[in-house]
Amino acid sequence: MISTLTLHNYRGFAEYELRGLARVNLLVGPNNCGKTSVLEAVELLASDGHPAAMMRSSRRRGESVSHRDRGGRTTRYTVRHHFRGHDAAPHAWLSVASDGSLGRIEMRIRHLSSQDPPALFDARPPETDLALRASQPLVLELHRGRRGSTRDEPHVYPLTSDGAIAWPPFSRPHRPEPFIPIRFLTADSRFDDELRAAWNQVEIDGGEDEIVNAMRVIAPDLRSIRLLASGGRAGLAGSVRSGFALGFEGGGGRTPIGSHGEGMRRLLALAVSLTDLAGGFLLIDEIGTGLHWTVMADMWRLVIETSGYSGTQVLASTHSLDCIRGLASLLGERPDLADEVSVHKLERRIRRSARFGGEEILAATDLDIELR
Q1: How far apart are CA 101 and CA 124, in angstroms?
Q2: Using CA atoms, how far apart are residues 133 and 52, in angstroms rounded to an integer?
Q3: Per residue in 39-64, pLDDT tens?
Q4: Helix 262-276 and helix 208-215: axis angle, to 10°?
Q5: Could you say which of 52, 95, 342, 352 is the most buried, measured as most Cβ atoms within 10 Å of its Cβ?
Q6: How many CA within 13 A on the CB side of residue 192?
Q7: Which positions ≥6 away from 206 have C-beta within 8 Å?
């Protein structure tokens, strides 16, 4: 778990700091204040600066570039957008750091040097534009340093001239991402292979009853959840996008989760992720999406209690006043949870987020003080 996060030249932030992060943290603020960027910074840091984390971020934001060459259509991931000002020029740099075990990563863009390994010259991606082909090659240099350890030797990755990463090859054997459980849920997240695998592990561990109980927040008569294999009768399995079907009290066959609205799908993703990410990080963009205001307090109870059991640290964003009021309502009923949560209001003109602890969240809501 981390309690501080410091950003330099990362996306829209020249310099920014969050202090006093709790087990569960809610990021608020106006549009384009950087809430999603903070979540992505944690993902990048927990991934040890691995390029795969940058690519996931690029896919979510539509920052990838598709083009056709001799080998067919390929996709490039434009890492320059991670640098403040979308800067792919030589000497552009960024850093993300925290306390705890995650330490610090630093990245900079520079020209390919004669001192670099020869393999980097061979690894240069093909350029489609004559002007780009004529320019001096660029590379992305990554330094990482875990707390209590010395700064490691840099990893260097070839870039296109417009700041897109070549993936693969590398200057040295591919290093895997560090095994820190982490998941990023967006407002339109669907059950991909990663979440299906997480559900399979829940069933292996015998934890499906806990998930059912959590889902009863918005469906009190829920009896069971099943993940369907591919195939089966077209009337059921063939129509289920996520593969999940729900059974309810009173008998009758199970029905696809998609038939019960986005709230059910969203809550299931939250419950499964919290159970699966023991000791890791759950990052949630727009946590209240698809949920009615009447269940917000119960949603927060699920998040706070389950993250406490699993040791998962949660960072979430919202624009919803109902979401904040739901959190305050829960804290009014459960003052023992006050130390487990914090709200951070982001404003780029200030270099540090404004932090509200549990008691301050409750007081601000009672006094009708705008936290968003």
Answers
A1: 34
A2: 25
A3: 999 999 999 888 888 888 988 888 87
A4: 140
A5: 342
A6: 7
A7: none
DSSP 43: H
In angstroms, how far is CA 242 from the centroid of its own chain? Answer: 20
Query: Which of 284, 178, 261, 250 lies closest to 215, judged by CA?
Result: 261
Determine the straight-line distance between the first and last CA of the chain, rounded to whole angstroms: 25
To 10 degrees, what angle do helices 296-310 and 262-276 make? 20
- Residue 139 near residue 109, CB atoms below 8 Å: yes
Relative to beta strand 24-28, strand 313-317 is parallel
Nearest to 63 by CA among 48, 49, 46, 76: 76
Structure tokens at 91: 């000497």
Residue 239 CA to residue 197 CA, distance in Å, equals 20
Q: What confidence tens digit (pLDDT) does each residue in 165-192 have?
A: 755 544 444 455 557 889 999 887 666 6
CA distance 39 to 5: 11
Burial zone of 262 (CB within 10 Å; 0-12 exposed, 13-18 middle, 19+ buried):
middle
- Altogether, the residues listed in the chain come to a count of 372
Instruction: Convert the pLDDT of each residue in 88-121 to its tens digit.
Output: 888 899 999 998 778 899 999 988 887 776 666 5
Burial code (b: 16+ CB inside 10 Å, e: under 16) for 128-163 equals eeeeeeeeebbbbbbbbebeeeeeeeebbbbbbbbb
Mean pLDDT, 10 residues at a time, the chain of 372 residues: 95 95 95 94 92 88 73 73 89 92 90 72 53 66 69 77 64 56 83 79 87 85 85 45 81 83 85 88 92 90 91 94 93 94 92 93 76 65
Residue type, 367: L
CA separation for the pair 292, 294 (Å, rounded): 5
Handedness of CA 194, 200, 238, 218 (dihedral sign): negative
Phi/psi at 130 (5° precision): -60, -40
